[in-house]
Each structure stands twice: as structure tokens, then as C-alpha cells.
Amino acid sequence: MRVLAVASECFPLVKTGGLADVVGALPAALAAHGVAVTTLLPGYPAVRAALAEACEIGSVPEGRLVAGRAGALDLVTFDAPALFDRPGDPYRRPDGADWPDNALRFAALARVAAAIATGRTALPRFDLLHAHDWQAGLAPAYLAFAPGPRVPSVLSVHNLAFQGQFGAELFPALGLPAEAFAVDGVEYYGGVGFLKAGLHYADRIITVSPTYAREIATPEGGMGLDGLIRARKDRITGIVNGIDIEVWSPETDAALPRRYDIGTLSLRAHNRAAVEAAFGLGPGPGPLFAVVSRLTWQKGIDLIAEALPLLLGAGGRLALLGTGDAALEGAFLAAAASHPGRVGVRIGFDEALSHLMFGGADAVLVPSRFEPCGLTQLYGLRYGCVPVVSRVGGLADTVIDANAAALEAGVATGIQFFPVTASALGAAILRAAELFADGEAWAGMQRAGMRADLSWSRRAGAYAAVFRAACAAGA
Question: Dihedral (C-alpha) 47, 53, 54, 57: value to the nearest 10 degrees?
Fold first, then answer.
């Protein structure tokens, strides 16, 4: 099966979050299941620079389409400098504001994806198009109105909170027929909804965990789209994300001063010392908690600030790496100033430092209010950095709570809490501190987490099954 994937980012070429990790890791995993993936990306400077064996396969008014390879990835880049050769990240200007023409930029990407998938370039026609998130959400709509034999599509929803909603004045610029601007189409509360369009037109829909698939079908979790999601529930499959276990491996990770495996957990102490040094932390009797996250309301970062007195009172220390809401950044910088040696903060993102934190911290806090899947807790499991998570979405699906039965059976891998409040998080932090004091119980959780199968191999088989179902439905 030949699949064209279309996304706005892809690790290791361009990354702002977990979407990039998934887009970058899936092709190799799917190859083992008879699926050959070519990935279409915007022609950001970093993507164009990485492209090898490049050849032009077509052109559109906005630019050229160039095929090539980057490492193990088969790529097509949409080389449109006016749209994608810009400073800042893929979506925002250097000052943090969204690019005002994001709707046109990603509509063009989706339109190009449909053209490539249907064989209107030098590449042969594809069997299926796989669109990721709102930035590619219009691609199934363009396919629905494309001439010639139909190419089926699958939409992956990585986070329903980001929907790509724009005013109705955009519609004439999209090049879709007038009939597409309807409730059973791209229209959404009087405007244009990119993700809504994908949810309506895609043959199959994948969410990144089974629990999230159930949550978004409710008024509380559906963010205005729950009615459409319930109407299409027989076409929706929840598949938990995997991670690249070669990139994320404590046995080979070059970012760690001391590498280790499940049998040499004591070596993590060297990495903990390195984390302490990086964040200006002193020793302490309790766990070293890590936060590696966007600093946003969704991620529950404000709850950590509220629970901080309990964390410190239990002998814990905190190392935080992230960027986001200015008020939250300021709150944690103030906490670090008020608690020198016990709270350390680095504003920004550093890939190597994040690896070190998972390899040296005792626990990682993930108190998200909603979490489609989450990769942070998976990295924690892989590195023996015990996850403390809210019981929502993919966090509920991937972390086994350290209740009495799970501890006795030796299968507990972390700590879950609910409801998602500061007091519940504080209670979970106290549980973590108590378990940390029981060295045998803590090491048992670390080992159970490190034994978990977090690779893409089994997940990729589920993706391949959805792809084949979409092709059968679209035949």
C-alpha cells in the first residue's frame, strides 16, 4: 500500500510538539506492515536543507513540488518561499503571534496533498492519503471533490483543541465548490473549520488513544464537535502513540553522562547529579520531580504551582523545562528565586536537556486537564522516571496506577490522580514521596515501566488495519 502522509511538522526536521515525533516515526514502523509512506511537508528552510536526491515533480501557482529523501524518510516538499520561508516556528511569528495568513498557507498544503495523492504530479497515484491535525484537515475535502477515481483518506486527530477555525470570507479563496460550504461540509458555526472538514470528509479517523476517542464524543470533551464525532463513531479508532525506542533509549542516549538499563538503575544517580547541576539544585531527601512541557492551562502547569508547597514540604525538588504562557513562566521563575536550590527553571526548550531530565529525575509530573495521548509519560516510562499523571486521555491508557493490587502484582508503573485539581495533584505528589522512601517499591515501578512495550511496531499494525479498512470503504 502506498500512502501519502501530509503534516505541518516532522521530527527531526521541524518540531514544536508530539505531532512531529509521530509523523517522523510512523513511516519506518509501517514499512514492516506492507505500507510505504511518502510524507508531504511545507518547504521550511530546515526541510529544504535536509532534502537529498531531490527532483522537481510538479508546480503550482504558489511554488514547486520537490521529492527527495531525508535520512530514512521519503519526502515531498511544497517549496513555496512566500508561504513557508519565514522566521519563527511553523505557526507563529517571532513575537509569538500567529501568522495572519495561516489559513491560506495550510489550505494550499492540503490542496497540494490532494493533487499529489490523485496522481496529478510526476509521482504515481497513491492508495490513500493520511492527514494530520487541522493543518492538513482540508485535504480530505479536496479529495472529495477531486476529478477521477476517488482516493480514500484517514484523518489523525492529535489534539481536538486546535481546530483551524477561520471566517467565512476565506471560503472563496479555497477553490472548493460552493456546495462544500455547508453543515455537511467545511462550514462551522458560520465560518470555515479545517479540522471539522477533515472529520466530515475522511473515510476513517484515528485519535491517539482509546480513552481520548471516548472523551471527545462527549459535550465536555468534544469542544463543539462532539455531535459530528458521535455521528461518525463507527469510523473512529483510538490508537495509543508509540515512541522511537532507538532515539529514546537509556542504554545508548548520548545526552546522558551515564547510560544504564533495567539492571543498572543505580547508575541513574550520576545523571541525577547532572540534572541538579544544570538547574542549580542541591541534594534533598525526597524525589527530584521533573516537568518537561509547554507551560499552558491544558497541561495543568498552574496546578503544579499551587501544589509546590506540598512538593517542597515532602522533601522534593523541582526541575522545570518549558515555555508558554508568560504568567506561568513568571510564576515559576519567581518560585525559583524564592526557593534557591530546591526549584530550578529553564525557560525554552532543549532536546538534549530533556533527555537528561528523563534519565536523571526520579519522577515526571504530567497533570494535564486533557491529554489526547501524551509522549512525556512514555519517555518517563522508558527511562525509569516514574510518571505522576492525571487520569485522562492517553495518560489513563499508558500508566498503571500504583494501587495496592498493582504494587503487589508488580505491574504498577506510575501514579494516577483524579479529579484534575491542585489538591488531587498534591495528594499524588505525597504518594510519590511515600513510595520513593520505599526503595524496593520505587525500583519495582521503574523496572515495570521500562519493561513496557512502547515501540511503534504493534501500534503500526493497528494503523495499517485502519488504512486497509479506509481503502475497502472507498473502493
Answer: -130
